[in-house]
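Q: Predict the assembly, please.
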Amino acid sequence: MSEKSWGGRFEQDLDAQAAAFSASVDVDKRLAPQDIRGSIAHARMLGARGVLSAQDVERIVSGLTAIASEIESGQFVWDPAAEDVHMNVEATLTKRIGEAGARLHTGRSRNDQVATDMRLWTREACYASCARIDALLSVLCVRAQQHLSVLMPGYTHMQRAQPVRLSHHLLAWCEMLERDRGRLQDAARRMNLSPLGSGALAATTFPLDRAQSAKELGFDGVTHNSLDAVGDRDFLVETVAALANCAVHLSRIAEELVLWSSQEFGFVQMSDAFTTGSSMMPQKKNPDMAELVRGKTGRVVGDLVSLLVMLKGLPLAYNRDMQEDKPPVFDAFDTVDASLTVLAGSIASARFDAARMRRALGEGFVDATELADYLAAKGVPFRSAHHVAGRLVKTAFDAGKTLAQLSLQELRAEHAAFEADVYLALDPEVAVERRALPGGPARSMVSAEISALRDRLQARGVDSQAIATRFGVITEP
Amino acid sequence: MSEKSWGGRFEQDLDAQAAAFSASVDVDKRLAPQDIRGSIAHARMLGARGVLSAQDVERIVSGLTAIASEIESGQFVWDPAAEDVHMNVEATLTKRIGEAGARLHTGRSRNDQVATDMRLWTREACYASCARIDALLSVLCVRAQQHLSVLMPGYTHMQRAQPVRLSHHLLAWCEMLERDRGRLQDAARRMNLSPLGSGALAATTFPLDRAQSAKELGFDGVTHNSLDAVGDRDFLVETVAALANCAVHLSRIAEELVLWSSQEFGFVQMSDAFTTGSSMMPQKKNPDMAELVRGKTGRVVGDLVSLLVMLKGLPLAYNRDMQEDKPPVFDAFDTVDASLTVLAGSIASARFDAARMRRALGEGFVDATELADYLAAKGVPFRSAHHVAGRLVKTAFDAGKTLAQLSLQELRAEHAAFEADVYLALDPEVAVERRALPGGPARSMVSAEISALRDRLQARGVDSQAIATRFGVITEP
Amino acid sequence: MSEKSWGGRFEQDLDAQAAAFSASVDVDKRLAPQDIRGSIAHARMLGARGVLSAQDVERIVSGLTAIASEIESGQFVWDPAAEDVHMNVEATLTKRIGEAGARLHTGRSRNDQVATDMRLWTREACYASCARIDALLSVLCVRAQQHLSVLMPGYTHMQRAQPVRLSHHLLAWCEMLERDRGRLQDAARRMNLSPLGSGALAATTFPLDRAQSAKELGFDGVTHNSLDAVGDRDFLVETVAALANCAVHLSRIAEELVLWSSQEFGFVQMSDAFTTGSSMMPQKKNPDMAELVRGKTGRVVGDLVSLLVMLKGLPLAYNRDMQEDKPPVFDAFDTVDASLTVLAGSIASARFDAARMRRALGEGFVDATELADYLAAKGVPFRSAHHVAGRLVKTAFDAGKTLAQLSLQELRAEHAAFEADVYLALDPEVAVERRALPGGPARSMVSAEISALRDRLQARGVDSQAIATRFGVITEP
Amino acid sequence: MSEKSWGGRFEQDLDAQAAAFSASVDVDKRLAPQDIRGSIAHARMLGARGVLSAQDVERIVSGLTAIASEIESGQFVWDPAAEDVHMNVEATLTKRIGEAGARLHTGRSRNDQVATDMRLWTREACYASCARIDALLSVLCVRAQQHLSVLMPGYTHMQRAQPVRLSHHLLAWCEMLERDRGRLQDAARRMNLSPLGSGALAATTFPLDRAQSAKELGFDGVTHNSLDAVGDRDFLVETVAALANCAVHLSRIAEELVLWSSQEFGFVQMSDAFTTGSSMMPQKKNPDMAELVRGKTGRVVGDLVSLLVMLKGLPLAYNRDMQEDKPPVFDAFDTVDASLTVLAGSIASARFDAARMRRALGEGFVDATELADYLAAKGVPFRSAHHVAGRLVKTAFDAGKTLAQLSLQELRAEHAAFEADVYLALDPEVAVERRALPGGPARSMVSAEISALRDRLQARGVDSQAIATRFGVITEP
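A: Predicted assembly structure:
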């Protein structure tokens, strides 16, 4: 007959295939540290409320502490037949300390237990991912500082558009990552309420002190409805959505690294340490890390969909479907965390080719806007100025010239307002410096943003230079 | 030759199918109010900086104001050939006020313009959805107050589990909705920075005062990187993810309404005003509104995926792919907003069958936990108490009895700790009242949560009773 | 210095984190049997074309055969540093047989190699899943035969609608599964072309005989474009889409098992061997297997999205992103396969409660359509007949009667066409038997469909009775 | 009181917001032609079976025929209050022809009616999309023929890899599209069974001849289970999955057009008729059509997810959730159809820059594989040959030379097997021609594939040259 925790009214053991199908310990054993901390807090609270004797509490706490160490060191033997992490821990505890172990589950259900574990785990994972984002930000901050003088074409529609600084481009990535960080922080804050004491769905008749266990576990308070506390996983959807947003950002950074690594662009050379070759083609040096980061975006979006589909249409409160919350959450964190780290290393060690970028500025008429702005500043309505510039681009293109190579006469043939100072406006260095609005590419603006980023990191306790060094940031271009 | 805003260097008109494929005015005209407010703020700021004359500003502002009224009243004639909302408005303006209209676009690009429009629109849509959530919360708050005394079985795994209050269940829905509201607020706050002044991708050479236009438009500040400001749509992903979370919540509420409306449950009777019949089966009264709410969840999840797929792997900054951000965002808001409203009406007018719910409590051994808790409270280790209760359930089931119908002798046959007071513990009313933890179903706890909800709504300026009345809340059961 | 297969032009080893990030052997070692069969076929073909000596071929084939056995028996030692399954196998081979091993990769690239492996693996996985579908069909076929006489209410909108046979309902599930099977077969057929010989992207200069290796590997022919053959994974999208369709079907079957297991419906009692209990509530017997099947649907839909996102916007031909094709494909098959099997066991051992189903037919006016059809058959236009029946439902409902309890007088009060034979029409047994169209619930029709299903299974070599027995089908209700 | 088709037992009208929420006529009126054909077939069959008089049938058929013309010409007035397309048509018919109209719904339900409509519509949409695929294939076929002599670098990992023909690359796109076509054909075939006669869920008591109406509607037969026929939409999932696969293919083609249009690649110049400019930057010529095609992929993947989420966990048979099947299906077809057409026009009018492609072959060591193959052909084990070639790439790179610029002495310094004929092998023209395997880039192979494609199109009745001409295919490069 069954040794399961719930075996009382059952006459037959679980079918072997069903047991394998429903066992979760391979996945949820990752929750063991949180599970044990939760159990310790629960036991202490039961002791404080007189539900457990001081002696029982002491036995439970020391028993669980020992188990935690064994798990951490890899000595603990997991029993797949014991269903899940909770039962593995509790059964081992009871085997060792006897009746006191069997009292631990008083006033608790696996439903509020696992909800507590998941909130603790996810909260901590959010903070850990924020630290990895900070590391990538640190690398980008240092590299932006290094390349403050490098100009490159900015693109829209993958067409050369206007000149910017490489640093400005790297800072755009930083803005994206800062918001990702903000979303993870918000998610961590919103989930930070203790479900312990919600029982299976309707709280419990035991006189628990929910605030005590919440406080011991670092929660900001307790949840306000027992049915909701055990029956919802929206905090996981929110978290994985934040990770999906981040993964999409990483895919965009990766796309640019792949593009810039191509022979056609040639803007960057990834280090040998972050590229691989081909088994057939001896010349290949492929930006595999960036490609993998880009490709793995699919996983995280898939994880998000997985959670949403699982939850759709479920009645309250707990349903076993929810066991399927763990694989996508673990996978999304693992994927994004590894991607952040490998990108930090890739970018720290990449060599940017300033000359190639500068050369690209000379082609593609990225100075055409300057012509239009020049006229508009002289009072020509912008729409007309834009048309004049468009025609001059065509003239130059047909003549195989750049705009700066057109004579003043040729310019004046399209509009009389052109004067000799127009050639100054066409210089990319000047063009960039004239874009001196907040958020613009002028040196002063970019420099201020780099400082602000460094200060923000500092305020979070992050020494950007030290971290960049740890990632092997190179000091040459 | 082309009359497009960008026609200068083009020799050939856009292909008719390509024009139809790329035209967006049918969709983006919805942004017109925001677009015009943005243009007015931009013009005023250009005036303040001396880029436009006071007279030009005045002409632009009054011209745009007139267009806005025409659009609102439906008199404005949209021209699909004019590509999008921006060009429709600007072309009409210029036709009417001449050169001043052609100066409006100075120091601006459609790239920062549409980014501004979308942030304004979405910020306001978030607040509007929050108001709709508040309306549904108001209805639930009033109905929870009405049914404070009604007991029902709480379920896990769709099996009767333990007794709760109907109000407790309705409040669980409220908790879900409150978090959805919080996420929309967070999204609105995070996106509330002005991209105006970012130009096409690299700011502009004109001496804009970004802070001024930001302030006039109600933004909390300005964006910090021009490439990022025109090239990212993560704020839409965040918003639609919040809506998807909400839609999944609504699907769960809808699922319960469908279940409860079934002949098998019979817990609720939806009003004729929110049900429909069958073209073939005369007896049918179908909970179509709830089914549609549940089914429409797919749209919102689809909208979220749509955005994520669109953005995946895009290089910076603006790419035309991003035109596809609008349909999913509009659809997600429309769907969730309508679902919230139709649920508010459905729930306001539904009749709950307290007797049927109470009857359900008498079957299914929902009092078995009381037996186990009873023993545990007498010092029997919980795991043993649970086994005893399980065996007694089996005994009762085999004998066709409820647990309360077992004699004290029968109870004692399983464990000697049972005494006569056990029968009191089995009374559902008692069982619920003993669950008097925060977040639990006891009357005092539920009552406190109802008050807290009412107060929160009040603090947001929402009179829950008045709103429930507007939704036709019924006062009988 | 690097020992990688592609190390020639590299000066620096791969970064450790990058190596961990990009290593795939933990996942792709599952392709080992296919990889080795592919290599053997390639080697033999190279021998036949004179590119390899007979001796080299012999050494390669026996070396690979030995490795295959070691892998199967679990003795093979995988080296994560060797990147992937291909290099693990080849490196081991070369270590053992020397230069002949280093010749194996002649005229081949990992790009066409892995494309071949994935096609072989997926083709076989499709067939294996079809066999599992056949097993579930077998169980359903036997149970449908057993319960041919059991009537139950059919539902629409989760409202009782019209009477059907339980067998008819079980056969509806079979129809769904048959189409899933058809889609997997189509996918397997469409992918069954050999990419071997496509090289890295542009075929090879060696005089391969692509048809020979294709034939040896059971392919129907060879692919027609080398860039496409190494650069597309649409066959995986197609396959996983078929699995997602199937998973959604299984979620619907599971939903019905969960509903029917509730105390409210009570139509089925799942066996102890396929249910679990609660750690807190002793009375619970939860349909966890069905819930898990339903919940795991999210995984498969997530897997599908994962693949689509990964492929979106990738230029030809091979990109490293494609390494991410394996996890979702393996996961989707594992999930659906296990779900099929656990459902087969669950349904084989479930007890259907014919009395409870029959009782449900007596409530809910499921005979109202009979009234309308009765009148329509007497020449009353259907729309009028439907209205009359609707009003009679209301009359009966208000009087607390069933339709059959209304007197002839009461019926005639609504329409004069009613005569005494109307009561016969209201008998569910009669009502069902009168629905004797193909695909309808009449006994003859259902019986014919059961036979047809049994015959189809037979034609595929499946003995449905034997398989149902193996799944422990019960012979009582 | 309600005038709805199902009003009999209802006392209250539908709430206005609920009516708006549930009305579908704006969307489903697109089914009108199919709905009317279905009704005509149903009426004729009822006539043949004696259920309707010949006169009634005649009135119905001519009434419906008239309505169909009015709908086609846009004269028909839709009434949103009449819920859906079915009721709009039937109510109008009955208003015009009286009682006969009210008899049309005999033996039918909206459930089997809409299932029939959707199958008819989708089947036809599949064929129409196949025709659009054929048009794009025609353009590609003609362009491939035109550019048979043009060489370009083939890429993997977006790195130049080996030389191929432009035609070979265009044919890779054709392979992808051919499979998409095959999937749509399979979907159309599998869904081609008539659900008519399945009634609401349990067939009907009227003596219908299901085969007759099926035949008249072009179905291959009838469905085999009434519950399944009205309660499943897997055929839509299959179809939209095929469209999603196609959309992803189009996103890949679009990505390459965007890349090739960049100044960095410069492989193609899109026609003015398929590009647009910038409102700020006069020089821009943006590949917007390709970008939009790429961006719209998100919609189609979103549509697929939408359907899967909607269906997940629905019990049989019909549920109102299924009303939500139409928007994603219509949107997916519209999106893919328009994308196919705009791509056909874009590619027909694009100018390929053969010189630029050829120049790209001279850089990036795309001939390194030739060196390795040269050695392998001389008996050097491939792995060693690959290493030698890798080292020579490094030597050349460090010396700023191409491989062909290395002296024989330099080559021999790495391996003694090199002889003077090695330089011939390095010529791209020779390298491509030596890849003369089926599916390879040699002229003979590519030419054969072009012919085979042209023949396949011909066999489907498609004159590829005529269609390409209609799309304005240019005849110069």
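The beta strands of chain D are 151-156, 159-165, 268-269, 351-352. Chain D has three domains: 15-106, 111-158+166-206+218-354, 368-425.
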